[in-house]
Amino acid sequence: MATAKKHLVAIFAAVGLLALGGYAYYVNQSAPPVPMAPAGGPAPGKAGGPPGAFAIGVDTVKVASSVFVDEVAAVGSLKSNESVVLRPEIAGRLAAIHLREGMPAARGTVLVALDASTQAAELRQAEANLALAQANHRRTEDLYEKKFVSARARDEAAANLKVLEAAVALAQARLQKTQIRAPFAGIVGIRNVSVGDYVKEGQELVNIEDIGSLKVDFRLPESYLSRLRKGQSVEVSTDAMPGQAFKGMLDAIDPLLDASGRAISLRARLDNPDLKLRPGMFVRVRLAFGSERQGLAVPEEALMPAGNDNFVFKVAEGKAQRVMVKIGQRRGATVEITQGLKAGDEVVTAGQLKLRDGVPVRAGQGAAAPAESKPATQ
Fold first, then answer.
1. SS3 of the chain: helix, strand, coil, percent, to 5
2. Alpha carbon distance 108, 280 (integer Å)
3. Closest CA to 99 of 212, 203, 209, 211
4. pLDDT tens digit string along 47-100?
5. pTM over 0.85
6. pLDDT digit string (tens) for 214-259?
7. Domains of the chain from N-terminus onward
8. Alpha carbon distance 12, 2 (integer Å)
9. Between 130 and which of 29, 164, 268, 294 could a Cys-Cys bridge form, CB atoms 3.0 to 4.6 Å apart?
């Protein structure tokens, strides 16, 4: 029995060895032959195969010369050349409203009139008292010349005359305060009252705005202080009117800097003859320091910031080369390069994250570069 078991184990072992040998023979016959490396050449499977076999696809553009203006950009808001909210100096009931909302008004035009019956009566009373004082003063002068009254009586008559003249002037001033006039030529706003309303001193009635020219208030960092001069040209644009630019000039520099933000408050002025711009609008301001100049431009997406430095990948002899650059002015999606590149250099604009220094690259195989990446002329 034991001998039979031994014979079975030997048979199964022999069959297993035959099966393994057959499988190994089949695998060796199916595998392709391994190419022999040429003498002195790289071993199979190593780098150095056909050119471009391991190159990384990227998008590139050539560094081009572009026109730049030495300027700085900021944001600001528009203000009226003159702006005031009309308020009465005395209390009273509104008798008439002569203004037309949203329409121009000349300087001195009566816009709102209060009930002036009381003030007119006070003026007539003061004028009557003045007339009596004038007559008394003339008689006193005649009697003094004839030595019938003393000098004191003459002086008292003259003083009384001056008091009543002042009373008439006071009554006239009170009467004038019942008429609220335009202090300057401008556009009348929207009124908050109606005829018959009783208004108190200082209550808001209506605003009037001089918008024939506008002020632009904006701020810049204190580092620009030495370059600021009154009269420098300013260009203003707004999202409400895309594609349009309005010219102005720097009109005032605040002598006091903001201690919290270390910023300079500036005010420019620009003409608004067509009344397209309105006070309160948000605007973008460009302040020019000098004339146009030529510079090298690359798309902003080519830059790779690293701390305080900026790098680009330049394509040289089919390989990526990491280059540190110095940047100058930014204008839209274009950046000025002041150091590190020259005109005609090819820089990577898409696919930089896959690159390292010296890696082979293949241009034009990545995502399409946006149109804004082209250097813009100004």
1. 25, 40, 35
2. 26
3. 209
4. 444 444 478 888 888 888 887 777 888 999 999 999 999 999 999 999 999 999
5. no
6. 999 999 999 889 889 998 999 999 999 988 999 999 999 999 998 8
7. 56-69+293-373 (2.40.420.20), 73-80+210-290 (2.40.30.170), 91-199 (1.10.287.470)
8. 16
9. 164
